[in-house]
Amino acid sequence: MRGTMMGGSRRVTLNDVAAASGVSRATVSFVLNDDPNQTISAATRERVKGAARDLGYVPHGIARALREGSSRIVVLNIDWGLEGNYSRSYVRGLDDELAAHDHVLLVRHGHSAPQSTQQILDTIAPRAVLRFAEPYLSGYEPDEEDWRSGFAAHAALQIGYLADRGHSHMGMALHSHDYPLTELRLRFARATTDRLGLPPLTPFVVPRLREAGTEAVRAFRAAHPEVTAVAAFDDDTALRTLTALLDLGLGVPSDMAVIGYDDTEYGALVTPALTTVRIDAEAHGRIAARVALGLDPGGITGAPGRVIERGSA
């Protein structure tokens, strides 16, 4: 019999596991909570865990929260506009690492009223509450380490890639409404052109509607004929820019190179396929999980961001 309900009528309890494994309820509790202060043989531990698995025993979360002072739930808030491949890989790493330490991840997307947020937190008593990209959303000033492997380094990949291919005058395509981190990304890009001794980066907005986007790109080209490449805020704005250029009868990358950011699946489906920047953030999520649980994050290192080379740049 499996499942969390005995005979379809009630929840499996510690007493049920104790009866099935032939030990006391206290022993079951010691084994399932991995109590380091108890000496229990490996055979007994395996018998208890096997019985718990066979019965489908699930710890009662409220009882555990009362005993430990908090639940084994970690909450991650992701602001609207920050969803993408980077955040998804971060969540995978965070979730996997928390699960390895018997914790559960709850992800909340978008903006929400403080009152509703507090109601949720009061109800589940989370072990920790995290905010995705918190340092950068709170006015963090990057140091040299950030320029080597952090957000600043990832933003610089676009500019460096274009510069290595002979582009000196560049534009940066932005959304028509405010996104979190837009100003910071633009600042990092401008700092990169300064570091490389290139002319200042020129930002411009590409609206979502196709006709409006095409007109915006046409006007930008007319005002800045010296620009030969565009580094986009993300793949979404890159694809809108690429579409506008093709609508204007221009060649990509012969008349204008375009590079995206965050490597969404759609970039590989257009012609020419979109060159973009990919960042695998699973290690960052694992580190965040360990810090949230008060564990040493040492030994976990992230893979560096990289450019996915396709036809648009």
Helix content: 40-55%
* Rounded average pLDDT: 88
Computed structural class: alpha/beta
Unreliable residue runs? 1-9
The largest pleated sheet is described as:
4 strands, parallel
Number of helices: 13
Q: Give the radius of gyration.
A: 26 Å
Measure the end-to-end span.
59 Å
Oligomeric state of this protein: single chain
Assign an overall shape. Answer: elongated
Draw up the topology in text:
Layout: E1 5-6, E2 10-11, H1 14-21, H2 25-32, H3 42-55, H4 61-68, E3 73-78, H5 85-100, E4 104-109, H6 114-124, E5 128-131, H7 134-137, H8 144-149, H9 151-164, E6 170-174, H10 182-196, E7 202-205, H11 210-223, E8 229-232, H12 235-247, E9 257-259, E10 276-278, H13 282-292, E11 306-308
Parallel strand pairs: 3-4, 3-5, 6-7, 6-8, 8-9
Antiparallel strand pairs: 1-2, 10-11
Helix pairs in contact: 1-2, 1-3, 5-13, 9-10, 11-12
What would you note in describing this structure?
By secondary structure, the protein is α/β, with parallel strands linked by helices. The protein has 13 helices and eleven strands. The chain has helices at 14-21, 25-32, 42-55, 61-68, 85-100, 114-124, 134-137, 144-149, 151-164, 182-196, 210-223, 235-247, 282-292, and strands spanning 5-6, 10-11, 73-78, 104-109, 128-131, 170-174, 202-205, 229-232, 257-259, 276-278, 306-308. The strands form four sheets. Strands 7-6-8-9 form a four-stranded parallel beta sheet, with helices on both faces. Strands 4-3-5 form a three-stranded parallel beta sheet, covered by helices on one side. Helix 5 links the parallel strand 3 (73-78) and strand 4 (104-109). Helix 9 packs across helix 10 and helix 11 (210-223) packs across helix 12 (235-247). 35% of the residues are buried.
